[in-house]
Design goal:
Layout: H1 18-39, H2 45-57, H3 63-68, H4 71-90, H5 93-109, H6 121-125, H7 132-211, H8 214-326, H9 332-381
Helix pairs in contact: 1-8, 2-7, 4-7, 4-8, 5-7, 5-8, 7-8
Length: 382
Amino acid sequence: MTNEMPRLTLTPELNVKPEEQAEVQSAEAQVEAVKKEMDQMVLTDAEQNMVAEFAKQIDVTNANQILMYGAGAQQNIANFSENALNNVRNKDLGEIGDALSGLVVELRTLNFDDSDEDKGFFAKLFRKGKSQLEELKAQYTEVEGNVDKITTVLEQHQIALLKDVAMLDEMYALNLQYYKELSMYIIAGRKRLEEVRANDVEALRQKAAASGNAEDAQAYNDLVNMCDRFEKKLHDLELSRTVSLQMGPQTRMLQNNDVMMVEKIQSSLVNTIPLWKSQMVLALGLENARRATEAQTAVSEMTNELLKRNADKLKQGSVEIAKEAERSIIDIETLQYTNEQLIATLDEVMQIQRDGAVKRKEAEAELRRIEGELKAKLMELK
């Protein structure tokens, strides 16, 4: 806690926002302008003559006349106040605010952001189910239907408010009439009251003072009391006129509120909604262009990939064909191998032949030996 001393001031600084202060000043200026207009109301010559003639007819000594003096004008002011109250009571500007708020909510419903970054290119392009464009169109159709309903409600409120503005104009003119009527009653009453006090009351006072008669004194007191009652009645009329004076700026303020609401509705109907629809058309066009670009990109990438693959296959095939074309029917390696095998075969055949000759010689020698042994053995038998 701080131990700061409290400050007292006769000119406190209110924490009022600049825009709120401007609205307050504007309303105060409007009130002062209307009051000035009503205060400066000047009676015409005909009306002044009417007041003068009417003042002569006022009988201050007639209690019923004093009681009912200006009652009709007061009743008109009371009826006027009641009508104004009913107008305010039956006006539901909150419903208009709800409609405008609902319009904002509907316009914010659409999501123009495409967040498919986690998906592959071809997966986004050829994904199953509704495409983004179809989803966007579906959202637009739904929101457009709700916006059209809100638009209808706003148009109805606008018509009702325009009627109220016209009615408030009539009420303002009627209030001016009542204000003038009360003023004429008050002027006539004051004029008559001044005359009675200056002439009749003074005459009765002098008569009562001169005669000392109780009846004359009572007549003087009765007239003084009737003048006081009439003065109070004029004061009541002044209070009613003050009410009428206040009703003028109040009517204008109420009318100004209606006009501002009409302007807001008009702005929504001719600016906000058409702008939203144009932006929606732009969004759909951009989405169409984006999808066309994606499709063209996919085709281009697929074409490039096919060209690269075909180029690789063409290179590989051409190299193999060229190699095959430059190759002999019989490879030199094959001839070398065949020649080597042939030489080796000949060498082996010759070796076999040499070995066979040696073995034949050895066999012949062995045969001669065997033949010799056989002949020797035969000779022994003889």
